[in-house]
Structure formats: C-alpha cells, structure tokens
Design brief:
single chain, TIM Barrel, alpha/beta, three-stranded parallel beta sheet
C-alpha cells in the first residue's frame, strides 16, 4: 500500500485544483500558473481525449508540481495514468477491482466515498485516505464531522461544491488534508489563456489556511 505516498501529495497544498483540459497544448502553461500562485499539486480529470497527453506534458515540463489523474473509473484507467506519468490517481467513487488494483499499483490510489458503508469498505481494504465526493451534495462539513467519531483514523480530500468562500471551513476540520476545487481554472480563463487570472486564483487558494 502506498497510502503514505498519497497523504504526502494531499498535504502539498491546502487546495488541489481539479482541472479538465481539452487542449494538451495549454497544460504546461496552466501548471506553471498554478506554481507561480503557490500550488504544488494538481488533478487532471480523465474526461477528455487530451487528458493523458496533458498529464504527460505537465509531468515533463513542470517539476515543481505533482500531477495526478482524476476520474479514474477502471483498472485500465489506473494503469494508463501511471504510464502517462501521473504521480497518483483519484476516483470519484470506488470498485472492488480498483480497491484491489490500487493496493499494488505503480502509483498511489485515492478512492472516493460518500457514505459510511463505502468508508468502511475502503478501510477494510487497507486504505486510510479518501476523496469525499460529491462533498456538498453528500453532507459537506456536517458529514465529515460525523465521520470523525466512528472513523478517527480516516483522512479526506473533500471535492465537489466547494468554493473559495467555503474552503476554509473544510480545511479547519482535523480529518481534512486538503480540498479539491475546480474554481481555480474557470473555463473562460482557460479559453482566454488568462494565466494571470489563474495565478491570482491559485495564490488566494494557497493562502486558504
């Protein structure tokens, strides 16, 4: 198990940008904007044909940020992410096959949970760190506080429905390592290649604690 490794990545920045990249040609510039803003970790979702190429570009061009693959839905996705150069992989949920494969994969794997039963299954499989998704819809801060009692050793990266205005409340919870957010790379800013705006958003997020 590489849970120690995933925890190190989750502690790199208080906020992990969750980005969907349509054009791999902008990936390196996007990563550099995050780095200038003080962000040291990024999740690139596997939602576009350009995603794996974007991960490869970031891993090759910007050593000051750790790039992970998000929206990992299958064992094949997990292997493809590792081959592309991702430092870690994240799912929006989990399956028995992924939980098993993640135990021996080349890169650390972060499964997601939304309920106590899913969390118990993940803990039983040997995991300690989890994505909590969709955080806002699944109970948000109140749910994370409820998890803390029966599951004191579990640690989380809540993602989904979190904004710059609410992220601090999540980060103040002792069982939260970082929070994921898509607000750091708005679609219009990506389309305009507005790296200064993205850098400013990153800088504000990096100072969330």
């Amino acid at each position: 198990m590489k849970q120690g490794g995933i925890e190190e990545f989750l502690r790199l920045s208080p906020v992990m940008p969750v980005v969907t990249i349509e054009d791999a040609g902008i990936a390196a510039d996007l990563a550099r904007a995050f780095v200038r803003g003080g962000i040291r970790v990024i999740e690139v979702t596997l939602r576009t044909p350009a995603a794996l190429q974007a991960i490869e570009a970031i891993a090759r061009a910007e050593p000051d940020i750790c790039v992970g693959a998000g929206t990992v839905l299958s064992v094949s996705d997990l292997h493809s992410a590792a081959k592309a150069g991702a430092a870690f992989a994240i799912s929006p949920g989990s399956t028995l096959a992924l939980l098993e494969a993640g135990r021996t994969s080349a890169i650390p794997y972060l499964p997601a949970v939304a309920t106590a039963s899913e969390l118990m299954n993940g803990l039983a499989a040997g995991y300690r760190c989890f994505k909590f998704f969709p955080a806002g819809a699944a109970g948000g801060i109140a749910m994370l506080k409820s998890f803390a009692g029966p599951f004191p050793d579990a640690r989380f990266c809540p993602t989904g429905g979190i904004t710059q205005d609410t992220v601090r409340s999540y980060l103040e919870l002792p069982n939260v390592l970082c929070a994921g957010g898509s607000w750091l790379s708005p679609a219009d800013a990506l389309a305009a290649r507005d790296w200064a705006r993205i850098e400013a958003l990153a800088s504000k997020a990096a100072a969330s604690l």
